[in-house]
Design brief:
It comes from Salix viminalis (Common osier). This is EUKARYOTIC TRANSLATION INITIATION FACTOR 2C. By secondary structure, this protein is of the alpha+beta class. The chain has a domain at 47-140. It is built from 3 helices and 5 strands. The chain has helices at 3-12, 71-84, 140-147; strands at 47-57, 94-96, 101-104, 111-117, 126-139. It has a 5-stranded antiparallel sheet with strand order 2-3-1-5-4.
């Protein structure tokens, strides 16, 4: 048992189950693993705001059901809203998953916004309703604690 595990077991009264082969050292097999990761530096005092996004046509198609909007059009509708009001919606401070989620380093206005968008230069623009709602605040101090080896997110 390493010192860190021993300290945790003393502090919280839990110890890990010991393996019969002394932690897997008798049957060692190495594997090559290629991963896609990189070092990220972040300010643990920062908060990332998670917003739920719903985009739908203002006027439903004549066939009755809600029209399916492609992922590329969803992104372009979001881009249009952000370009129309960059002081309220700073594009560079946000990340959009292309469907239902926006993550932002700054607070964004919530509510429903009307966006006029045309799929092509010669096509008639359509009206879309872009609804954005704050659903969570991700405190990076909690991430720092987890990366530091703490198993609890509590600050105490």
């Amino acid at each position: 048992m390493c010192q860190k595990d021993w300290l945790l077991s003393v502090l919280i009264g839990i110890s890990p189950v010991l393996r019969p082969d002394k932690g897997g050292k008798q049957a060692v097999r190495t594997s090559r693993l290629l991963v896609n990761h990189f070092l990220v530096k972040f300010n643990p005092k920062s908060i990332i705001l998670h917003y739920d996004v719903n985009i739908k046509q203002e006027v439903l198609p004549k066939h009755g059901g809600p029209g399916k909007i492609s992922k590329s059009n969803l992104a372009m509708i979001r881009d249009k809203l952000f370009a129309d009001d960059p002081s309220s919606f700073p594009l560079a401070m946000t990340a959009y998953d292309g469907e239902k989620n926006i993550f932002s380093a700054v607070s964004l206005p919530t509510g429903t916004f009307k966006v006029q968008f045309s799929e092509a230069e010669d096509a008639k623009p359509r009206s879309y309703l872009f609804t954005i709602k704050l659903v969570n605040e991700l405190e990076l101090r909690k991430l720092k604690r987890l990366l530091g080896g703490y198993t609890s997110l509590n600050t105490s």
